[in-house]
Design a protein that fits this description.
- The structure is a single chain.
- Strand 1 and strand 2 form a beta hairpin.
- The chain is mostly helical.
- It is built from ten helices and two strands.
- The longest helix has 25 residues.
- The protein has a two-stranded antiparallel sheet.
- The relative contact order is 0.13.
- Helices cover 70% and strands 3% of the residues.
């Protein structure tokens, strides 16, 4: 016999579904959330839906107006650059923490990941490379899940996935070598070099985003 869902599991269900709808582009940047329609679509009452919206607002996926209206957050170059500024600091610290203790099997996985997408770099297959790019950064984050930093990075990576869904921010041939440099520094066990390699990697992207903001350009298509 199937047990009825509790209010907590209903909230979690709404949260996961709404988040996936945003990440998948089914709810687009700037779109107003009509709670009555969403409640019907998800098969829930408005109480767990409101709780899920509040969680997503805290994670910067949704913006609430003073009138209580909810909109999908807009992620143009300026907003993405702000997220990447936080990523640079937090992921740099991730590499600093990992460098002295990272296991050989993790280094081998990262190298195999990069080796598997080298043909994509040479063939400019951006979809394949984008998936590997997200996996590279997420994998490193997951290695510090027992550290408070892991929870802080989780929301940033979800937002990163939404921003990268618009297209790669730099060409694969630019970032491939930077990923290798990060792996090399981690394998050498040098926390200073590993931290700097990650920070430089992300801040090169930030510079491009700031240029686009100043020029009034839209995010990549």
């Amino acid at each position: 016999m199937r047990l009825p869902l509790t209010s907590e599991t209903l909230e979690d269900h709404c949260y996961r579904e709404l988040r996936q709808m945003i990440l998948g582009g089914h709810l687009v940047s700037g779109e107003k959330l009509v709670q009555e329609d969403l409640a019907v679509r998800l098969g829930v009452s408005r109480t767990p839906l409101r709780s899920a919206i509040a969680r997503l607002e805290r994670e910067n996926f949704i913006k609430l107006t003073t009138r209580g209206e909810a909109f999908v957050a807009e992620f143009g170059p300026r907003q993405i650059a702000d997220v990447f500024e936080m990523r640079a600091v937090l992921e740099g610290l991730t590499c600093r923490l990992l460098a002295p203790t990272i296991e050989r099997k993790h280094i081998l996985y990262l190298r195999s990941l990069m080796a598997s997408v080298k043909p994509a770099v040479e063939g400019d297959d951006r979809d394949v490379y984008r998936d590997a790019d997200v996996e590279f950064h997420t994998y490193l984050t997951n290695l510090v899940t027992d550290h408070p930093l892991g929870r802080m990075l989780e929301s940033l990576h979800l937002i990163m996935a939404m921003s990268l869904a618009q297209g790669l921010l730099r060409a694969p041939e630019e970032t491939f070598g930077e990923h290798i440099q990060i792996i090399d520094a981690l394998e050498a066990g040098d926390p200073d070099v590993a931290e700097r390699a990650m920070i430089d990697h992300i801040r090169r992207t930030i510079a491009i985003l700031r240029q686009r903001t100043d020029a009034g350009e839209p995010p990549p298509a």
